[in-house]
Design a protein that fits this description.
Helix content: 25-40%
Oligomer: single chain
Length: 563
C-alpha cells in the first residue's frame, strides 16, 4: 500500500468539532445545504448530504479536498465513491478530480457525461485518470449540479493500483512535553500595535531575516485587525531597522502603484487611492494607517519606502496607463481593445475563469496587444516609461490568460520578480494571503522561492479565536471565527498562553519527539474573503512557511466608510 501521509476523511466519519460538517473538506455553493447524515448512509456512521430545492441553470454545490500531488505525479489514479440521489433535476451528482500545472489545468473530470440524476439507490461511481508528471496541485471532491438531494459516502483513492490508506486524525490534547518544547522555542512579542515605542521584542528578526531580500507576510483571513496591525508593525520595523525599501501588496498592479505617488510626494487622496485598488479587503482603517505612516516617514526626508502591487485581475488600470503615455497609442486602437475587454468582463461565465478564450478571440487579442507593444517600442524611448508601458501590456495578456487559480499565482510571482528586477538593490516586504506566499502547491511563493532561493522568506499568520471581516450570509460584515479545536495547529499554539509569538519552523527537528506534531499535516485555518463553515483544512506548515506568527485573538478589521 501507499504510505499514509495525510488524513483526508474520505468516508466523512469525522465531524468538525462541535458541528455537523466533515473535517478536511471545503464546502461551497450558495443556497446548498451540506451536512453529515447519520440516517441515510452506505458505510460507517455518516454520509455527506448535499441538497437544494430550486436551482438556476449554473448553480452547483461542491465539497473539495486536496490530494498529495507527490504521491500521484506521473501515475494512474482511480477515484471511487458511492452516491445516492433523490429528485435531482437540471443537472447531476458526481465526483470530480482536477490536476493543475504551472500553466493551468492539466486534467479534469467531473462526471458531467455520466453523473447520476433523478432518483437512484446507492451506486458506485469512478474517475480514472493519468496524472501528468508536471502536476503541481490536485483537488478532488463531490458535487451536485442543479436541484434535489445527493448523498456521498465511502470515497476511495487508488494510485497505480495501490490503495491510499489514510492515517487517523489526531484529536488528543498536546502533551506536557510538547507544550514545554513550544514554550522553549517561541519568541514572545510585545504587541501587534505599531505604536512607535519599544521594538526590542522584534530584535530577533535581524538574525532570522539576515539573508532575506523578499519577505512574504501572510494572513490567514483577509479581515483580521490584529494581523493587519501586526503586519504594519513589521513593515515599519523592516524599513527602520532592516533596510527594506519596497512594499508590495496583493492588489492590482497599476492601481497599487498610484499609491506610490501619495507615499512619496503626497499626491492624491489616500482613501480614494485605497478604494481604487478594488478589493474591499484593503479598504480598512488598518491599511490606511500604514499608508499614512509611509507618507509621514517619507515626508521627514528619511530613506523612502515605496508602495507597489503585483496582482493582475483587472484591466482598466492598464488601459488608463497606456492612454497617459507621453506618446500614447492611437485612440481608436485603445478603444477597440477596451470594448472587447468590456465584453469579456460582462460575460459572467468567462469572468469566473471557468472558460478560456476561443482560438479566434485569442488571435484577435494577440494581434491587438502586439500592435500596442510595437507602438510602445517605436514611440517611447525613456527607459522607465517604456518598461512600465510594456509591463502594462503584459498585465493585459495575463488578465486574458487567467483561466485557473494557479495561473494567477504564476503571474503574481512574475510581476513581483519584475518589480525586484527594476529595483536590484532593494528589499521587498510582500503583503498577501497565506495561500499565496506559501512555498508549495504551485502557489506564488513556490515560484518566488525558485527565483530567489533562500533570499525568499515567508511568515505565515495564525490565530485561535475571535472574529474577522468577510462576505457571508449577512453580506460584508464581521463574523465570529471558528475557534481552534484539539488536533489543529492553532490549538497547540494557544495552549501555552502566550498571546503573540513567532516560531521559526526552520529550526524544528524531526527527530525530537516533542516537536513531531509540527510535521503531522494537521488542520490549519484557511479562510480568504469569504466566511465559510469549516475554516480548518489540512496543511503542511513545515513546507509552506519559514516562520509562524501567532496571535491568540482576532477582531474584525475596521472598514473605511463607503463613498
Amino acid at each position: 500500500p501507499l504510505p499514509a501521509q495525510v488524513f483526508l476523511n474520505l468516508d466523512f466519519e469525522y465531524p468538525v468539532y462541535g458541528q455537523t460538517i466533515p473535517q478536511k473538506w471545503y464546502l461551497a455553493g450558495e443556497g446548498y445545504e451540506q451536512a453529515l447524515d447519520s440516517t441515510i448512509r452506505h458505510f460507517g456512521q455518516f454520509s455527506l448530504r448535499m441538497g437544494r430545492e430550486e436551482a438556476g441553470p449554473d448553480a452547483f454545490g461542491v465539497c473539495g479536498g486536496n490530494f498529495p500531488v507527490d504521491l500521484a505525479r506521473g501515475k494512474s489514479i482511480a477515484y471511487r465513491g458511492w452516491i445516492r440521489t433523490e429528485k435531482v433535476a437540471g443537472g447531476f451528482a458526481g465526483l470530480w478530480w482536477r490536476v493543475d500545472g504551472k500553466e493551468g489545468i492539466l486534467g479534469f473530470d467531473n462526471m458531467g457525461d455520466r453523473g447520476l440524476s433523478g432518483d437512484s439507490g446507492w451506486t458506485e461511481v469512478a474517475i480514472e485518470m493519468k496524472v501528468d508528471s508536471a502536476a503541481t496541485n490536485i483537488n478532488f471532491g463531490a458535487l451536485l449540479v442543479g436541484s434535489g438531494t445527493a448523498w456521498f459516502d465511502r470515497l476511495e483513492i487508488w494510485v497505480d493500483g495501490e490503495p491510499y490508506l489514510e492515517p487517523l486524525p489526531r484529536v488528543s490534547a498536546p502533551t506536557a512535553e510538547e507544550l514545554e518544547w513550544l514554550r522553549t522555542n517561541v519568541i514572545p512579542l510585545r504587541t501587534v500595535d505599531p505604536d512607535g515605542s519599544s521594538d526590542a521584542d522584534l530584535a530577533p528578526l535581524k538574525k532570522l531575516l539576515a539573508d532575506a531580500r523578499v519577505v512574504g507576510l501572510g494572513e490567514v483571513t483577509h479581515g483580521s485587525s490584529e494581523i493587519f496591525r501586526m503586519k504594519h508593525r513589521l513593515v515599519r520595523y523592516f524599513r527602520e531597522q532592516l533596510d527594506f525599501d519596497l512594499f508590495s501588496i496583493e492588489a492590482n498592479m497599476p492601481e497599487a502603484y498610484r499609491l506610490d505617488d501619495y507615499v512619496l510626494k503626497g499626491e492624491g487622496d489616500p482613501v480614494d487611492l485605497i478604494r481604487g485598488m478594488y478589493f474591499w479587503t484593503w479598504r480598512t482603517e488598518e491599511v490606511l494607517a500604514m499608508v499614512e505612516w509611509m507618507r509621514a516617514h517619507n515626508g521627514e526626508g528619511k530613506d523612502a519606502i515605496r508602495f507597489t502591487g503585483f496582482d493582475m485581475q483587472y484591466y482598466a488600470g492598464s488601459l488608463e496607463e497606456l492612454s497617459h503615455l507621453s506618446s500614447p497609442p492611437p485612440t481608436a486602437a485603445l478603444d477597440t481593445l477596451r470594448s472587447r475587454l468590456d465584453w469579456l468582463n460582462e460575460n459572467s461565465r468567462w469572468r469566473r475563469g471557468n472558460f478560456g478564450l476561443t482560438d479566434e478571440q485569442a488571435g484577435q487579442f494577440a494581434q491587438l496587444l502586439s500592435e500596442q507593444r510595437a507602438w510602445i517600442e517605436g514611440h517611447i524611448s525613456e527607459p522607465s516609461e517604456r518598461a512600465w508601458a510594456l509591463q502594462n501590456v503584459r498585465l493585459l495578456e495575463q488578465y486574458l490568460d487567467h483561466t485557473s487559480f494557479n495561473k494567477r499565482d504564476v503571474y503574481m510571482a512574475e510581476n513581483l520578480t519584475w518589480i525586484a528586477e527594476r529595483h536590484p538593490g532593494s528589499k521587498i516586504a510582500l503583503w498577501a494571503h497565506n495561500g499565496h506566499i506559501q512555498e508549495s502547491d504551485g502557489r506564488m511563493g513556490q515560484y518566488l522561492a525558485e527565483t530567489f532561493g533562500d533570499a525568499y522568506l515567508t511568515i505565515g499568520f495564525a490565530f485561535h479565536e475571535g472574529a474577522y471581516t468577510a462576505i457571508g450570509k449577512e453580506g460584508l460584515s464581521a463574523y465570529e471565527a471558528q475557534a481552534s479545536y484539539p488536533g489543529t495547529y492553532e490549538y497547540f499554539f494557544q495552549a501555552i498562553d502566550e498571546p503573540i509569538f513567532l516560531l521559526d519552523l526552520r529550526a524544528v527537528s524531526r527527530e525530537d519527539p516533542a516537536s513531531k506534531w509540527i510535521f503531522e499535516n494537521l488542520p490549519f485555518r484557511q479562510t480568504g474573503a469569504m466566511n465559510i463553515p469549516n475554516e480548518f483544512i489540512e496543511a503542511a506548515l513545515y513546507d509552506d512557511f519559514d516562520l509562524i506568527l501567532f496571535v491568540r485573538e482576532s477582531s474584525a478589521s475596521s472598514l473605511l466608510p463607503d463613498e
